[in-house]
Design a protein that fits this description.
heterodimer, A: 219 residues, B: 219 residues, mainly alpha, 82% helix
Amino acid sequence: MTFDLAFALSIVPPIARALTTTLAVTLLSCVFAALLGFGLEITRRSSKPMRYAMRFVIDFIRSTPVLVQLYFLYYVLPVYGIKLPALVVGVAALSLYYCGYLAEVFKAGIDGIPKGQFEAAKALGLNRTKTVLLVIAPQMLRNIAAPMGNYFISIFKSTPYLAVIAVPESFGSALDIASDTFRYGEPMAVVGALFLAIAVTLSFLIRKFEAHLALSAQR
Amino acid sequence: MSFADVLAGIYQGFGVTASVTLLGMAYAVPFAFIAGVLQFSTRGWPHAAITAVIEFWRSSPVIILLYAFYYTLPGFGIRLSGLAVGGLVLGLNIGGYGSQAVRAALQSLDRGQAEAGRSLGFRRWQILLLIELPQALLAMMPTFVNQFIQLVKSTALVSLITLSDMTFRAKEISQLHYDPVKVYTGLLVAYFVLCYPATIIGRWLERKVGAGRKFAHDV
C-alpha cells in the first residue's frame, strides 16, 4: 500500500468541513465543563458533609474512562425516557468528565488567593454570591489560565470519541471515508495532522497568554 | 442476569485490560524518562527533534493514533496484534505526558545542585543519574500516578480495535441481554474499583510532595 497524495488532498475538504461540528462540540463542552466544575468546587467549599460528598463525586468522575461515561449516557438515558440527540449526549459526556478535572484546577486557583481577600470581602459586607463572583472568580482565573487552557485542549482532543455514537465530527467523517474506500492511511493521516496542528497551535497560544498574564501581574 | 453476574462477566475482560496496561507501562516509563531527560539536556536542533517526537505522541488524539496504527501498519508489511498496537500507542501517548513531568521536575531543581556536582568533578551523566534524577523523582510521583490512571482508563479504547477487554465484554453482554442500565453501571463500577485506589494514592502524594516543597522553601 502506498500513500496516495491526490486521494489524501481530495478528502481534506469533507474532513475540514466536519471540523465545524468538532469545534462547536469543543466550545460547548468547555463552557459547560467549566461552569459545572466551578459549581462543584464552590459546593465542595460550602460545608463539611458537602466537602466529602463532592470530593467523592469528583474522584468517581476521574476514576472512570470518558468512553464508558459516554456509553453510559448514550445507552442508559433513553431507558428512562430521556431521548437526546447524539451531539447533546456527547457534549454532556465531555462536560461531565472534564468538570471533575476542572474542579481540581479551580480548587488550586482558589487556594492560591491570599486569605486577606476573603476577609476584605467580609469586611466590605459582600454576601457569598458577590464574594464568589466579584472577588474570588476573577483572581482565580488569573491563577489558573494555563492549566484550564490545557484541559480545554484535552477536551478538543477528546471530541473524536464522539464518533463512536455517530456524531458527525471530523474523526467520524474520516472513518466514514475509510470504510467507504477501504483506505485507512490517508484519512487517518489527514485527520490526525489536522488535530495535531490545531492542538499544538492552541497550546502555543496558551503559553503566550500565560506569559502575558505573568507580565501584567508583575506590573 | 443479576448485577453480580454482569460484573463477573465484565471482569472476564480484566486480563486483557491488565495486559494492555502493563504493556503500555513498559513503553511509557522508559519513553518518559528518555524523552524527558533528552528534552531537558539538549539544545538547538536535537532539542527541536525530541520536542517534535514528544508533541506527536502527546498532542495527537490517542483514539486517532490507535486507529491509524492499527489499520495502516499492515499496509507497510508490519503485522502486529491488537494488543501490541494498543500497548504501543497508549503507552507512548502516556509516556509523552510523563516526559513533561520528568522535564519539569528536572528544571525545578536548584541550579546549585548541578554546579556542586561539576565542582566535585562529576561528569554530566553522573550529575544527571546521581544528583538530579533522584531528587526530581519525588516531584514526578504525583503526575506519574495520575498518568497511570489515565493509562488504565484509556485501555477502554482497545475495545474499538476488537480486543476483548472489560469494555468489549460489557458491549457483548449488552447485546446478549438487553439491560443497558445494569451493564453500563457495572462497567463504571468495574473501572472505578480499579482506579479509585490509585486516585487516593495520587491525592495523598500530591499533598505530601506539596508539603515537602513548602518545607524546602522555608529552609
